[in-house]
Amino acid sequence: MTLYDLSRAELSELLAGEPAYRAGQLWEGLYRDHREIDELTTLPKSLRARLSGDERLSPAWSLVIESASDRGATRKWLFEAGDGSRIETVLMRYRERTTVCVSSQAGCAMGCSFCATGQLGFGRHLSCGEIVEQFIRASRWATAEGWGRIGNMVLMGMGEPLANYDNVFRALRRCNDSVGIGARSITVSTVGVVPGIAKMASEPLQVNLAVSLHAANDGLRDHLVPLNRRYPLKVLMAACEDYVEVTRRRISFAWACIGGVNDRPSDAHELAALARPLRAHVNLIPLNPTPGYQVAGSTAETVAYFRDELRDLGVNVTIRNTRGRDVDAACGQLAAGISPGGLTRGKRSSGAPREVAVRARLA
Ligand code: SF4
């Protein structure tokens, strides 16, 4: 249990004996203003000192490495928890918006063949507070550096969000109702956890759903996304259809373009046959290199040709700008800096390493 795991009622309990309005000041200071306890000058100094010494109010993450790329427009943080679990968070600045990409698990059990996180294996689920804290810390940084307010949050970092459904949605509700990010500005990405998609259809919080498809026939998808063996395309597409019917919201399909593997005209035809009935938007992402998957991403010309082919077939499609490739912060590269088996580093003593080696990112 860490600072952002505590509910409002639990925080109020810690303030027993204080005037009732103190709980509101503490909550708003943490969530609305993104302040640390030491900075909450609305609270008396003695109370701040007491709260700062309370272990239950400690942050979850210590910074290990901060990296930058794309001429400063992309920032990646490698964080470590008290149990040694490591995750990465990425912040991207575009002309019209700033987007944070957060992790939902340390590592990932899904084993997608092209993905650096998948190559690491599964560490553990992140708690609600560990997810919220990534957003708050990125917001603090963005404000301090003059990047302004974070307008979008994507659950596309390390892990499969729908495999950690309850913690992820608790965190998203917190980000929505207390931090103030709009539900329509939040995107949850999945490789096809069908029960999670069904659950999302009845979620009151109307966040966006992105399905990482990457292949439009079971033979290829079994290989690229092993979860397909459990939820083959017929089952996945039925879940997507139900979702669209219930929510009346459009979904998007992510497609990592892999040279000679899924970028041929026949792939475009198969993909169009899945996307068109759902009116799904397709995002094409040139594959980024990872140590465990040696096939190259499609060339820029092939991606453009593939896009045009899809357009001709009546599909809404965009080529996504890949960020942070040079510092392993691009799509599918997160955790590439952690060697397999290195998801946890053992217990940290007090004072985590703080190494700002500006060197790091996705879209
Ligand atoms: S692509 Fe996503 S679901 Fe697949 S292994 Fe990587 S992090 Fe996990």
SSE blueprint:
Elements: H1 8-14, H2 21-31, H3 45-52, E1 62-69, E2 74-80, E3 86-93, E4 98-101, E5 105-107, H4 116-120, E6 122-125, H5 128-144, E7 152-155, H6 165-179, E8 186-190, H7 194-201, E9 208-212, H8 218-224, H9 233-247, E10 252-257, H10 265-278, E11 281-286, H11 300-312, E12 316-319
Parallel strand pairs: 4-7, 7-8, 8-9, 9-10, 10-11, 11-12
Antiparallel strand pairs: 1-2, 2-3, 3-4, 5-6
The structure holds iron/sulfur cluster.
Summarize the structure.
This protein has 363 residues and is α/β, with parallel strands linked by helices. The chain has helices at 8-14, 21-31, 45-52, 116-120, 128-144, 165-179, 194-201, 218-224, 233-247, 265-278, 300-312, and strands at 62-69, 74-80, 86-93, 98-101, 105-107, 122-125, 152-155, 186-190, 208-212, 252-257, 281-286, 316-319. The site of iron/sulfur cluster has 11 residues, from helix 4.
Structure description:
The chain is an alpha/beta fold. It has two domains: 17-58, no CATH class; 60-327, Aldolase class I (TIM Barrel). The protein is built from eleven helices and twelve strands. A ten-stranded mixed beta sheet has the order 1-2-3-4-7-8-9-10-11-12, with helices on one face. A two-stranded antiparallel ribbon has the order 5-6. A hairpin with a 4-residue loop joins strand 3 (86-93) and strand 4 (98-101). Helix 5 (128-144) crosses helix 6, helix 7 runs parallel beside helix 9 (233-247) and helix 10 (265-278) packs across helix 11 (300-312). The longest helix has 17 residues, at 128-144. The chain is elongated and about 70 Å long.
